[in-house]
Amino acid sequence: MENGLVSENADLELIARARVGDADAMAELFRRHYASSLAIARRLLREEDSLDAVQSAYLSAFQKFESYRGESSFKTWLTRIVINECLQHLRSPACRGRMPRLHDLESGETPRVFVDRDLGPEELAVRAEVRGALLDALSALPTRYREVVNLYNVAGLSIHDTAARLGITVAATKTRLHRARSRVRYALRGFMKSSSILRC
Question: What pTM, to 2 d.p., does this model score?
């Protein structure tokens, strides 16, 4: 926790300098979070896709930098942008046959993607449909639930770190996770009954 506080204080100093036009401070601010951003993208995408997603996310974050108000840590703000970019990539036609596994969301593990090999067009179409349904269900979550899922399941933070990032209690964090999972289960119950894909 102390290291996290030191890191956030360093971010605040860099943010202050970047806001008055210090380009080196801006570059350092993004550089120091690049490794963790890439690690998050790699949990959701292929290696080559994760590099592109982080690059696009960082360009978006750079363009939106003036909108950062410090309501959450810079790392949390940046992580949200990276995750959103990855989800957009997963929705693209080029990403057919790859999807986060609902099992990982249910078990509390960090989501992974699986890559289909030698599948026919019908199975690819089914998987693409299910992938879209899962992503839609996650995107439709209220912000307070989606943030918990993003930090705990995608970014891989512990339940205590997730609570600290959001400024809520551990009990409240667990409650939000439970409700998020219940909503996703409800949204996907039709697929879960008819398909074995989500039970991979």
Answer: 0.56
Q: Which residues pair with 113 in a beta bridge?
A: 100
Give yes or no: residues 127 and 200 share one domain.
Answer: yes
Cα dihedral 84, 155, 142, 46 in deg (nearest 10): 40
Give the Cα separation of 82 and 183 in Å (integer).
23
Q: Give me the number of domains the chain comprises.
A: 2
| Dist. CA 97–CA 197, nearest whole Å | 11
82 and 106 share a domain? no
Would you call 152 exposed, middle or buried from its count of C-beta atoms within 10 A (0-12, 13-18, 19+)? buried
159, 173 contact by CB (below 8 A)? yes
Question: Is the domain of 88 the same as that of 114?
Answer: no
Amino acid at 191: F
Nearest Cα neighbor of 61 from 86, 79, 49 is: 79
- The boundaries of the domain holding residue 39 are 1-95
Hey, which bits of the chain come out as E strands? none
The tens digit of pLDDT for each residue in 29-77 reads: 999 999 989 888 888 777 778 888 899 999 999 989 988 888 888 988 9
Cα separation, 173 vs 123, in Å, equals 37
**Same-domain check for residues 34 and 80:** yes
CA distance 97 to 68: 35
Write down which residue in 95, 110, 144 finishes a domain: 95
CA distance 108 to 154: 10
